[in-house]
Amino acid sequence: MKNELSWDTQLRFKLIEVVALWEGRLTTNHLCNSFNIKRQQASRDINHYQSLFEEPPLIHDRSIKGYRPTAAFKPTYTKGTPDEYLSLLHRYSDNDLDGLNINSLGNAESFVVSVPERKVDPIIIQRLLQAAREQRRVDVDYVSLSQPVIRGRNIIPHTIVFDGFRWHVRAYCEERNAFRDFVLSRFRNEPELLDKSDISKHLDHDWMDEVTFEVIANPYLSSEQQQIVQDDYGMRSNPFIVTCRKALAKYFVKRLDICVDNRKLQKSPKRYQLTVTDPKNIRPLMID
């Protein structure tokens, strides 16, 4: 069935499945905005997708002004993994759909080293997204390494974030009276939507404020080695400037493997190739 469809049609079917599964609501606008097509074409694509199954996997629901997946819905053109949807969110602003794991159009071989995906139930993402869109409180069950027993808490989510290693939701925690990061794979059971909240992301100062730091090659490397590292990051004669939200700085530091411990920098310069010009300012932002 897949081989009989055009490449463009398969791409649109992938989007249909990803949005329906993870948002729980599909509209023609999803297709129109993503592929720059007219509403009539989007409707034909949805109807075409439906016609390929003995039992249509989507139901038109007037209460949500769109389509919702049936209880028997199973992805056919996608894998049904959370990374497909979350990657699509991450890349949507760049109109880049390779988050859908589309095969390369070229002939040159390439390979991406992947790690096992963390398991996330679609209903968790659906409820968190709805709460974020509607600025509502949500009652969730959550576990962590410091609190391994399931505990209920109320949060007000505002943004889903990929930190380079895993996905989390940035949310206000009523128990801690602070904005915190909650790993998506550590939610348990179905979140319960509550009432609207006056707390918005604009009150999350670590999210709204930006920090800037200068990344340089480890000065304990030889000059030749430093030049190689500088070329890696396009530093040339200037430091590599990173500007990001304060709440995300620690993830940049971790992903770039930046070290601010002078003893480690001196003892193992090949292991710790990057540092910053002002370690005192960046150190409080480091992940423990």
Describe the structure.
This is WYL domain-containing protein. Pfam families: BrxR_CTD (PF26107), WHD_BrxR (PF26109), WYL (PF13280). The protein has 288 residues and is an alpha+beta fold. The protein is built from ten helices and ten strands. It folds into three domains: 78 residues, Arc Repressor Mutant, subunit A (Orthogonal Bundle); 84 residues, SH3 type barrels (Roll); 77 residues, no CATH class. The protein has a five-stranded antiparallel β-sheet with strand order 6-5-4-3-7. It has a three-stranded antiparallel β-sheet with strand order 9-8-10. It has a two-stranded antiparallel sheet with strand order 1-2. A hairpin with a 4-residue loop joins β1 and β2. The radius of gyration is 22 Å and the shape is globular.
